């Protein structure tokens, strides 16, 4: 070895510069030339990097590609790759560059072309690139950019072509357009659904952030979110994406730290990232959509060292969104303006449910996050439709608030329901106190009972007067119908407040001599304002109610205590805990002057205070207090004392709120075993316990309890008491749930009439009960009867649920115009998921799914139904869905089922569509006879009639060309090309004739079938070696598809999607064959729903 | 195209030549080269046709595939122990080098000489041009290295064009892995320095 080599070899062992210099000083020993030679080599060594380390690939090709170390882009604007001309670079990701490109052939459109970065064509990168393409190809969702094509450049560089998404990041879009939080949430729900779709395909995005969620405004300025860049996507489960093991080599932080989940930040990779990581990132996006900032400060993360960043993500608890807003300083003004609100409103809006939703998505421990993106979406939808969200332990007050909001149009009746709800759904303190009072009754003299009875009658009379004032004078004006009559602007939100304001105005001195009625009205109005969050007004009215009742009845009266209690709840809910506490502390102080701690009055008031705590979210404190109270009462009065029992009921109620069913249940059950209780208290406990049972799906136990409670309440309060009516409804719902539809109808109908006579026709209670009757009928398949019942609530107070059922009803009734009309409404209210597989009319419903772009869902529901009811005939439909979705395995096995039933003679028919269903993909020669039995008999006898013949009846033409199409498919699969040509030609001729003779009806799918015929024709020509004809036929088919066949999601899309799917399935196959793609099972690569001009 | 008999004829010829080469027959080594060269070209061409959409074509992967087709299948287990395969890889590495260099030259010639100016020269082409020039520069440097350090140049050929691992290179050349590593580092630095001087 030469001296140069020895010194060089030794020097490179020393990686520290000073060590190396010291070594060279010593080794070269003043030989400047030697040192210069070695130093030159050392410099080269340090710079050489990957030089020569990767093999000289690509250069074999006729035109090569850059060598390693070359960071130039292969592709530049103006370059032509396959049929695509690159226009301009629109993005650059970790491993690919995205260009906008123009496709000229076979269709002219603009697309996005992603090509692997030339400086990064290592095996890993190519594998990841390929994985992204596969991942995208697996997906078919309106909110995910579709893959249209894939290939390799002449230099061997892989690329793929996607639907071009012209959009801006979701956060920018929302800010620029000043979208309100509600509008933002609706967009966000769609994003979640797209992510869920990816998850259902076993794909985790892993880099969700606003710049990967673009908002495209395609037509009519409707913002459509599109999730892009599945570049670091990872497959889960058994899904095979390219070379999964490669990822284990990539122990680097993939994705932006701001949106990264704690488990992704765990560099040791101890935790395998799963779909819940995306849920976290969605949570960050939601956080940013609401507050304009990310949970962790952008600047702080960008300044922090790498390990510190990881620590922050893994360990630090971010502030709640509302807390974050309050620390924004001046920025809050901008943030609020961008959300169309003032700072105070924004804070108020976000505090509470939205805080909870976001924080649940951002849980460090993924087991505590939403299980799925869908779960997150659902909770946001719940928020949007004013239903209780899942993200927090639901407190009674919270639920009630939601209930009232949900029924805004009929708010004033809802405020009456307040009592009903408390009584019937979960009886809290107030009712329990009644139990103690009842105890007094037992021990008192008969005349006192009579007095009490009189008082009850008086109360009933007052309630009646209050109701009539509110219903007739106020509510009537609040319903949309009456509003329209009086030429008021129909505005739901305004209306409620307006109605309340008017009610408040109209009190005047109308009730001068009836202070208790006036107090009742003030109470109801104050209560409703409270539920609407108009806390100041609520306070004013409740204070007035309290004052009047105090004056008329004294401090100890029920009414006074009730007003005091409601006021304290208001304070507790609006975050004024000290004021709420003070009310009861004052009360306790007052009582203390005459009572000792263990006196009943003191214990009762303390229980009220405990209620205040439970309302303001301090359930633990409330629970502790009540545990003590129970002990105190037990010691003082004994376990059998009604006070102890009512306190135990209340304690169990807090346990329920705290989700400690196991503690609540034995208490309720024990209370029921006692004989000492007044039957009203027993009823209350039964109602509560029944709720626990429903939660455990113990429906028949719940039923027994409710029936018993109903009996008691009817006896005590009369047939038409609000509590009784509400229980009727509860029972009706239970019967619907347990599919006892006749009983359900009976009980619900009674509830409707009860509510109508109590609260009026348009009251929330009446409408909800009506809803449920309609729903129950719908489930029984009695659509015509269900329709009017469902329509009224949907018109008066549209909610997602109501409109959804109404639409389903119209679908079953085949009233597409009504469907379309209500769909618009539904889109306003958000597109919700639909339950109950196996209900009658499933097919039209699945077609509705298809229209919403949810083919998968349609397929799943059909499959579930077919599985549970094998006698149904959904096999052929499933074949279309399976093939359209690219699920070849499912298709194959369903085809087997079809063939088996043909063999056994259990499926017969004469529909060409059955054959087409079996011929959507390649087929075994032996199976062909089984697949074509359905088309061997031409329509109209042994000779096929011609469409052109005189007076062709409507439908015949369809039959003729469909038959020809099916024969074309048969002959093509059989390999008889000339025969296939004849039949397909015949099919197209028939279609031409039909076109000319103007006999086509809208529902005859001529365009779909024509496109399908062209695609088959293209494949036949291709096989016969007529490339030009094949190309032409393909182009014709694609043109039909693009110009005449409506997109599944368009309004023109018709019920009956098999023709539509057939056209798309054959389009895919023909493109693969004629254009020479490797035959893949890419789903829906041919959905030209955008970009075509 | 019916390639099967052709390949097997070729395979037996290759095996025979490898035997002779390992027995010290210089002429056999010389005859081996064109045979392997043709096979590699054919293999590359066919792969290009059939694997249109897919992975990039790696020269070194081709060499290995050629080895599997031409040598391994044709030899018995006993013969595989014999180290004639290093002769094959030497030949194949050399063949691959020539193929690549020819391709690069051809590409540059076509570009400059041919009248294909119809499409304006896009960056795509100029990048390819650079790559071709890089390869030619490397080849030139390799010749210079071979003049001074033939063993190191041979090592680079085996590793870079033949796709052998460091262990394989070491055993092919009959040197220790450590020495092979040192040679590789030196050669790399030398070549890099030589190319960047220009």
For the structure shown, list the relevant keywords:
A: 1093 residues; mainly alpha; Phosphorylase Kinase, domain 1; six-stranded antiparallel beta sheet; globular; B: 198 residues; 0% strand
Rg of chain A, rounded, reads 36 Å
The quaternary state of the protein chains shown equals heterodimer
Considering residues with a beta carbon less than 8 A from a beta carbon on another chain, report the largest interface and each chain's count.
A-B, 48 and 46 residues
- Topology as H/E string of chain B? HHHHHHHHH
Q: How many strand units of chain A?
A: 11
Mean pLDDT of chain A: 72
The CATH class label of the domain at 167-385 in chain A is Mainly Alpha
CATH homology superfamily of the domain at 167-385 in chain A: Transferase(Phosphotransferase) domain 1
Helix content of chain B: over 70%
Number of domains of chain B: 1
Structural class of chain A: mainly alpha
Q: How many strands appear in the DSSP assignment of chain B?
A: 0
Kindly describe this structure.
The complex is a heterodimer of chains A (1093) and B (198). Chain A is mainly alpha-helical and 1093 residues long. Among the domains of chain A are: 46 residues, no CATH class; 84 residues, Phosphorylase Kinase, domain 1, CATH 3.30.200; 219 residues, Orthogonal Bundle (Transferase(Phosphotransferase), domain 1); 131 residues, no CATH class; 112 residues, Serine Threonine Protein Phosphatase 5, Tetratricopeptide repeat, CATH 1.25.40; 168 residues. Chain A is built from 49 helices and eleven strands. Chain A is globular. The C terminus of chain A is likely disordered. In chain B, helix 1 packs antiparallel against helix 2, helix 2 packs across helix 5 and helix 5 crosses helix 7. The N and C termini of chain B lie far apart (46 Å). Chain B has one domain. The longest helix of chain B has 29 residues. Chain B is mainly α. Helix content of chain B is 79%, strand content 0%. Classes of the chains: A mainly alpha (1093), B mainly alpha (198). The interface between A and B is large, with 48 and 46 residues.
């Amino acid at each position: 070895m030469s001296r140069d080599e020895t010194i060089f070899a030794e020097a490179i062992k020393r990686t520290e510069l000073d060590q190396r210099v010291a070594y060279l000083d010593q080794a070269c020993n003043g030989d400047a030339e030697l040192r210069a030679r070695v130093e030159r080599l050392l410099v080269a060594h340090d710079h050489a990097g990957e030089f020569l380390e990767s093999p000289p690939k690509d250069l074999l090709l006729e035109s090569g590609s850059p060598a390693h170390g070359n960071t130039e882009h292969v592709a530049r604007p103006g370059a032509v790759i396959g049929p695509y001309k690159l226009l301009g670079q629109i993005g650059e990701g970790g491993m690919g560059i995205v260009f906008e490109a123009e496709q000229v052939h076979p269709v002219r459109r603009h697309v996005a072309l992603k090509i692997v970065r030339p400086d990064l064509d290592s095996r890993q990168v190519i594998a990841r690139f390929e994985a992204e393409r596969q991942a995208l190809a697996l997906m078919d969702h309106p909110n995910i950019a579709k893959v249209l094509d894939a290939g390799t450049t002449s230099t061997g560089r892989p690329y793929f072509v996607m639907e071009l998404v012209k959009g801006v990041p979701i956060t920018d879009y929302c800010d620029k357009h000043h979208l309100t939080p509600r509008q933002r949430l609706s967009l966000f729900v769609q994003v979640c659904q797209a992510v869920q779709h990816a998850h259902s395909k076993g794909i985790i995005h892993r880099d969700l952030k606003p710049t990967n969620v673009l908002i495209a405004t395609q037509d009519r300025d409707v913002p459509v979110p599109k999730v892009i860049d599945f570049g670091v996507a990872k497959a889960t489960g058994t899904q095979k994406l390219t070379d999964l093991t490669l990822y284990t080599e990539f122990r680097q932080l993939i994705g932006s730290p701001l949106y990264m989940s704690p488990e992704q930040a765990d560099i040791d990779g101890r935790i395998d990232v799963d779909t819940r990581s995306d849920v976290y990132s969605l949570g960050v996006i939601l956080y940013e959509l609401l507050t304009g900032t990310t949970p962790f400060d952008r600047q702080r993360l960008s300044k922090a060292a790498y390990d510190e960043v990881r620590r922050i993500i893994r360990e630090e608890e971010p502030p709640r969104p509302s807390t974050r807003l309050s620390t924004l300083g001046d920025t809050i003004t901008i943030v609020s303006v961008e959300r169309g609100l003032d700072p105070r409103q924004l804070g108020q809006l976000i505090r509470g449910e939205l805080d909870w939703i976001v924080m649940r998505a951002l849980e460090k421990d993924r087991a505590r996050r939403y299980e799925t993106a869908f779960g997150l979406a659902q909770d946001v939808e719940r928020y949007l439709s004013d239903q209780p969200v899942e993200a927090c332990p639901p407190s009674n007050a919270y639920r009630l608030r939601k209930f009232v909001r949900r029924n805004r149009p009929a708010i004033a009746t809802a405020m009456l329901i307040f009592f009903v709800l408390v009584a019937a759904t979960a009886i809290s303190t107030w009712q329990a106190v009644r139990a103690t009072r009842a105890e007094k009754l037992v021990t008192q003299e008969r005349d006192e009972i009579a007095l009490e009875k009189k008082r009850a009658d008086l109360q009933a009379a007052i309630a009646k007067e209050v109701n009539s004032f509110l219903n007739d004078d106020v509510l009537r004006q609040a319903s949309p119908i009456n509003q329209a009559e009086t030429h008021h602007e129909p505005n739901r939100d305004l209306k409620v407040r307006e109605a309340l304001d008017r009610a408040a105005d109209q009190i005047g001195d109308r009730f001068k001599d009836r202070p208790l009625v006036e107090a009742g009205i003030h109470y109801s109005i104050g209560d409703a304002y409270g539920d609407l969050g108009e806390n100041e007004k609520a306070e004013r009215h409740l204070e007035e109610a309290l004052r009047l009742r105090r004056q008329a009845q004294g401090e100890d009266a029920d009414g006074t205590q009730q007003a005091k209690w409601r006021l304290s709840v208001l304070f507790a809910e609006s975050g004024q805990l000290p004021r709420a506490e003070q009310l009861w502390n004052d009360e306790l102080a007052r009582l203390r002057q005459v009572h000792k701690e263990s006196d009943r009055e003191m214990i009762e008031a303390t229980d009220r205070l405990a209620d205040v705590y439970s309302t303001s979210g301090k359930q633990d404190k409330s629970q502790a207090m009540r545990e003590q109270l129970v002990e105190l009462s037990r010691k003082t009065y004994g376990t059998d004392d009604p006070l102890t029992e009512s306190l135990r009921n209340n304690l169990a109620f807090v346990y329920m709120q705290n989700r400690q069913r196991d503690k609540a249940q034995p208490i309720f059950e024990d209370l029921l075993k006692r004989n000492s209780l007044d039957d009203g208290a027993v009823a209350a406990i039964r109602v509560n316990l029944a709720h626990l049972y429903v939660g455990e799906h113990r429906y028949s136990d719940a039923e027994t309890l409710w029936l018993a409670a109903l009996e008691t309440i009817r006896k005590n309060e009369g047939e038409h008491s609000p509590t009784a009516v509400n229980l009727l409804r509860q029972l009706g719902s239970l019967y619907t749930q347990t599919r006892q539809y006749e009983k359900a109808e009976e009980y619900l109908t009674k509830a409707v009439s009860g509510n109508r006579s109590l609260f009026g026709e348009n009251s929330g209670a009446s409408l909800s009960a009506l809803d449920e009757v309609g729903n129950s009928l719908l489930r029984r398949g009695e659509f015509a009867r269900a329709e009017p019942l469902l329509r009224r609530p949907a018109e008066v107070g549209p909610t997602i649920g109501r409109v959804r059922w109404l639409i389903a009803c119209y679908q079953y009734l085949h009233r597409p115009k009504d469907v379309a009309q209500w769909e618009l409404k539904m889109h306003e209210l958000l597109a919700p998921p639909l339950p109950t597989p196996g209900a009658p009319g499933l097919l039209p419903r699945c077609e509705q799914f298809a229209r919403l772009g949810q083919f998968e869902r349609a397929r799943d529901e059909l499959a579930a139904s077919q599985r549970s009811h094998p006698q149904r005939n959904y096999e052929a439909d499933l074949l279309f869905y399976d093939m359209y979705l690219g699920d070849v395995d499912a298709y194959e096995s369903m085809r087997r089922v079809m063939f088996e039933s043909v063999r056994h003679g259990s499926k017969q028919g004469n529909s060409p569509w059955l054959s087409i269903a079996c011929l959507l993909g390649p087929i075994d020669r032996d199976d062909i006879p089984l697949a074509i039995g359905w088309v061997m008999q031409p329509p109209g006898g042994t000779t096929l009639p011609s469409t052109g013949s005189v007076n062709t009846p409507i439908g015949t033409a369809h039959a003729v060309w469909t038959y020809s199409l099916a024969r074309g498919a048969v002959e093509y699969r059989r390999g008889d090309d000339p025969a296939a040509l004849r039949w397909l030609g015949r099919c197209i001729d028939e279609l031409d004739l039909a076109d000319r003779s103007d006999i086509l009806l809208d529902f005859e799918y001529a365009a779909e079938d024509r496109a399908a015929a062209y695609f088959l024709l293209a494949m036949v020509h291709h096989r016969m070696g007529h490339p030009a004809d094949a190309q032409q036929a393909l182009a014709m088919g694609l043109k039909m598809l693009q110009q005449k066949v409506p997109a599944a999601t368009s309004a023109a899309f018709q019920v009956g999607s098999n023709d539509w799917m057939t056209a798309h399935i054959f389009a895919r196959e023909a493109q693969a064959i004629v254009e020479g793609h490797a035959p893949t099972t890419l789903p829906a690569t041919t959905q030209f729903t955008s970009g075509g001009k | 195209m019916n390639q099967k008999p052709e390949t097997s004829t070729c395979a037996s010829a290759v095996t025979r030549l490898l035997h002779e080469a390992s027995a010290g027959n210089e002429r056999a080594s010389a005859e081996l080269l064109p045979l392997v060269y043709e096979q590699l070209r054919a293999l590359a061409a066919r792969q290009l046709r059939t694997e249109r959409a897919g992975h990039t074509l790696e020269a070194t992967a081709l060499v290995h595939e050629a080895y599997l087709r031409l040598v391994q299948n044709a030899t018995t287990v006993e013969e595989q122990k014999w180290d004639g395969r290093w002769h094959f890889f030497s030949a194949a590495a050399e063949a691959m080098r020539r193929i690549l260099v020819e391709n690069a030259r051809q590409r540059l010639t076509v570009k400059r000489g041919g009248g294909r100016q119809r499409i304006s020269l896009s960056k795509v082409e100029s990048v390819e041009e650079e790559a071709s020039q890089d390869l030619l520069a490397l080849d030139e440097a390799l010749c210079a290295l071979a003049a001074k350090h033939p063993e190191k140049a041979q090592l680079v050929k085996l590793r870079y064009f033949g796709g052998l691992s460091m262990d394989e290179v070491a055993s092919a050349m009959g040197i220790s892995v450590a020495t092979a590593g040192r040679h590789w580092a030196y050669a790399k630095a030398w070549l890099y320095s030589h190319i960047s001087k220009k």
